[in-house]
Amino acid sequence: MNRISIPTAEQTPSASKPLLDAVLKQLGxxxxxxxxxxxxxxxxxxxxxxxxxxxxxxxxIQLRERLALATAEFNGCDYCLAAHxxxxxxxxxxxxxxxxxxxxxxxxxxxxxxxxxxARRVSLERGHVTGADLEAVRAAGFGDAAIVEIVxxxxxxxxxxxxxxxxQTAIDFPVAEKLAA
Length: 181
Prior knowledge:
Blueprint: H1 17-27, H2 32-37, H3 41-55, H4 61-75, H5 78-90, H6 96-103, H7 110-124, H8 131-139, H9 144-167
Helix pairs in contact: 3-9, 4-5, 4-6, 4-7, 4-9, 7-8, 7-9
């Protein structure tokens, strides 16, 4: 049960309605996260704007979805694990094995693995990574723009992880399976 309300269409603030309409047009549905964040038109606009901006960056959708999965796993966000497992499979066309590996911040692809390991270090150290962490991701082929975007993707996903963890947002995607212990 949500600890922060998911407004009905009638209860949604008028300034959030066009933003949610755009989400509906893009995804075909309005996820509970968006409806709930729509309680604050400013928060919804900020989230959607940053999400749209990073989608235009140098990181492809496959890596962005893997970063989202790694971050959601790290933060224990069941809602985001479900949402990004769905998006990873249906939008980014990732395999189940790739998504499970990403949740553990690993990949069989060396460059992707370096990005995920760096993202995990960003999460673990709350941004206080070492010079060696930066050199490792650079050595894998990521330039400064990509490194900044990895960090921004982690931060964007921390935002939704925290909102969902606080709200205990009702999951409206297929529930993601648990990682083997």
